[in-house]
Amino acid sequence: EGRYEGITVSSPMQSIHPMLLKSATIPPDTGDYSFEVKWDGFRAIIYLDRGRLKIRSRSLRDMTVEYPTLLALADSMRKRRLILDGEIVALGASGKPDFGRMQQRSGKPASIVFIAFDVLYRDDRCLLNHPYTHRREILEGLNLIGPCWNTSRRYSDGAALLAATREHGLEGVVAKHTGSRYEPGQRSGAWLKVKNFSCCR
Could you list the active site residues? Predict the structure, then answer.
C-alpha cells in the first residue's frame, strides 16, 4: 500500500490524477534524465484489476466504453492488478500519431493504440514513491506488447531524439528525471516537455 493525497492506495480501481509536464528545452545535465517520444493523443490512466478494465482521462472522466478494443489488454493481464499511465493515440496511414483522426474517430474505424510509459501500482504494491528508473524497470518487465497496446521506448540522448522526432514530424520529446517519484496532479518540473513548435498545436 502507499499514500496518495491523504488516502491509502490499496486498489487499482482508485482514481489517480496523472503527473503533469512543464514546457522546457533539453536539460543541460542529460545524464540525470531519460527521454521518450511525446505522443500526440489523449492522456489516459488505465486501471486493470484481474480482467476488469477502467480508463480515465486527465480530468478523471471515465472513457472505458470509448475504447472497447482495450478490453483485450485487461484479458491479457487477467492475473494482474495494475495502474498504468500512458497515451491513447490514433495511428494514421503512415503509422504516425494523427491527432485529427483521434478527434474525429466517432463512428469511424481507427487504429487506436495505448502506449504505456509508467506503472503506478503493481499487484499489491503502490509505486508512486519509487524512483522513475525503478518504475520503468517494472513496466518493461510486464512486456506490454499487443495488438493495440505497447510500451514507450526510452532513450538516453535527448538532443538526438528531438532531432529525430522533428525529422519525422512528431510532436517532440519528454524528459523525465531518473530519480523522480510520481507526483499525481503536480507539475513539479521533474517531467519536461520539449516541443517541435513548427509541427505542434
Answer: 38
